[in-house]
Amino acid sequence: MNYFVVLTLTGLAAGMVYSALALALVLIWRATRIVNFAQGAMAMSTTYIALAVIQATGNYWIGFVAALVAGLAMGALAERFIVRWVETGPPLNAVILTLGLFLVLEAVVPMIWGAQIRSFPAPFSIAATQVGNTYIALSPFSIFTIAVVLAVMGAMLALFRLTGIGLRMRAAAFAPDMARLLGVRVGRLLTFGWALASMAGALAGMLVAPTLLLYPSNMDAILVYGFTAAVLGGLDSPVGALVGGVGIGLALSYIGGYVGGDLEAIGALVILIAILMLRPQGLFVHAAERRA
Amino acid sequence: MRLRGGTLLRNAAIAAVLVVLLAVGLFELDSLNAFVVYQLSSVTYVAIAAAGLTLLTGLNGQLSLGHGALMGIGAYCTAVLLRSYTDLNPAAVMAAAVLTTAAVSVVVGLGAARLRGPYLAGATLGLAVGLPGVAVRFSGFFGGDQGLNVPALSAPDSLSQVPQEVWLAWVGLVPAAITFVLLANLVSTRYGRDFKAIREDEIASALHGIRVARTQVLAFVLSGACAGLAGSLMAYTSNLAAPGSFPLTLSLELLAAIVIGGLGTLPGAVWGALVIVFAPDWIGSLNDALHLPGPVRAELPLALFGAVFVVAMLAFPEGVQGGLVRLWRWRVGRRQAAAARA
After folding, report:
1. Which CATH number fits domain A2-114+139-290: 1.10.10, 1.20.120, 1.10.3470, 1.10.490?
2. For chain A, N or C: smaller number of CB within 10 Å?
């Protein structure tokens, strides 16, 4: 029973990271109907940038901000200068393009920083919290992870629901031509959407690196988990991404704890296929007819 | 009916002539450069896997990021079978590898292929990332990180003067020829037209009575079977089935092969396979000329493949083959315009 609680708590924290990456996938899917398979590699690159900044300045928080800013910039540049040209073409081309970005990033990063596995600093302890004589599986860093993902999710939801730019973004995603006729700068909003998504991915990269360590393909599995979480949530809903991420985090934690850690990724595949067979529209889909 | 039989016979005859020519050519080439012959033997299985991916991606418009992992299933099936039955005929082993991989493809395809959009790509990505973990978890059966050894394939005594790498290349030519003949035949049948129709317009295909979901799953299973055959051949060639031999990048290299060769043409799969196998060498000699540092050397091929994806999709949205066709039409159009002016 105690073991079950431990797995639940670690799964919760891991799930928050998957939520952040799922959110990144969902934001881009909503806006451009593209699954950005480069999302994991982009997050990995921004985490390397953060590590370089941390080593140069000796301050974790400067590196943290650098990762988020680098994420924003990378997403905006990728959309404006590369993805923009295939957005209206066949979806297959766009996916192959994101895979090209994936390959380039996973090859260029080791060219700059080497391919060896690196440890990554955490601002708080990643060991279990001690309260009196009992240990709680939730480490201070896990609590930080949960808090920061919830805060970012809340901020993004507020942006979409409460602000004018959020309304225009939703309009641009839902009916781009109509939005354009009404004077919305759709292209600019797509760039902004990619930047936001890429920032959420960069956050996931920062949060996963202390426990998973940092190497060029360290986000590959996280991308699969994030995709599974996004599909579970409906691929269209930010709230679904959060719930899906936590669900996948818990499920994978139980699989890792009771069946074997090496089977987490294949477990995610089994869950994904089960979702696609039983409830392909996901748990939180706003309008079924918009399913691609 | 007569036409279809004619196509099959013609393709089979062309393939048989090509196989004989290539077999003789490989034998002659071996005295000049044995390593190139060894590399050509790996072109055979890369071409088989790329041909399977061409069927799925080029003709049916679906994307698989897991063909490398499916090759892994074929390779492990080969290794496990040969561990228990050392003297099993390679043809029987390859058939078993094909069937096993096809069975796995049915499971993945049923879940993912019947839905439009990115689901098959995502699910096959999961396969590519997750499958090595299975080999590690059940290391008693699959040999863990070290993998399983596959006994070398040696020529029969009557052909003992044939060098090992030539024999491997010969053995690879036969399943490659069979695969290409069968696929070329499939493309010209009703199934091939159904695949293309679905790629162009799913709703219109459904209105014409094509069972979209079933056809998509069929395309994925056939494509996966090719990958299984390729994996089995790869295990014979490299004498090993190990998790490290089937990384995600292998799947992406296969995709690079068909993007380079032009999405949707079977000959393109061969050109693409040649580039994938030989590009690291060419890039290696480029490195020697430029004196690049070690990490750049190691990663340059993948970076270039990635760049090829980006450039191909931006400059030739219809694939390299389509781009060439467009270029040809443009030139012909200009010549006709010049003739009209004169």
Report:
1. 1.10.3470
2. N
